[in-house]
């Protein structure tokens, strides 16, 4: 693997591949997270909106690793905006997970999912101020955002004290969001890549398959390694043990030429 960890701008280290739990129902989350922990994942990503925090937390507790050896991320639901509302949602999350603190807490989106693109700048600022308080009080080791565009992040930079440590965005070969990536780099904001496999839609792409074969890798392994070599942190998700192991077993480096070819892959979501 290219690297084991990233270091955020506040000095906190984060394992370089996370185990994503989006779309894993609560009843399946316990087994999936247990399999991930058993196979060496120590970075687990969940959200209040996923409805699986309770079993994610139970799996972590039952696996019996020391708390400080598991990096846990959760997220403030996208529709919750405001100072006290954020403090209340955070308490709900740590109660669900059965932990005293989070390693990373994110604003899940700059707008409610059913109002995508609408302006909630003031609500985001108030939520961020609440997250700054939780961070300064030691309840969260790092804070960040998700699905934020440049203007959304700039509003926080202009009105708050703490630069987000992370922006978790959809990112995969062919959908690199170059302007946003460059802005985050400029401000030392780590980009986390969710849906690094384009929710599976890239696995049968002929270019991906051809390049993967060259490295004796699977398409999934190639796409995850691509994210790492773009200095982003991938969050692959699976409920199958074989794939969970495969997604973390990366024993090759993609050449510069092949990286360029991968950048040119057609965005499957266009």
TrEMBL record:
Residues 17-266 form the NADP-dependent oxidoreductase domain. Keywords: NADP, Oxidoreductase. The keyword NADP applies. Coiled coil: none annotated. Pfam families: Aldo_ket_red. InterPro entries: AKR (IPR020471), Aldo/ket_reductase_CS (IPR018170), NAD(P)_OxRdtase_dom_sf (IPR036812), NADP_OxRdtase_dom (IPR023210). It comes from the Bacteria. Belongs to the aldo/keto reductase family. This is Aldo/keto reductase.
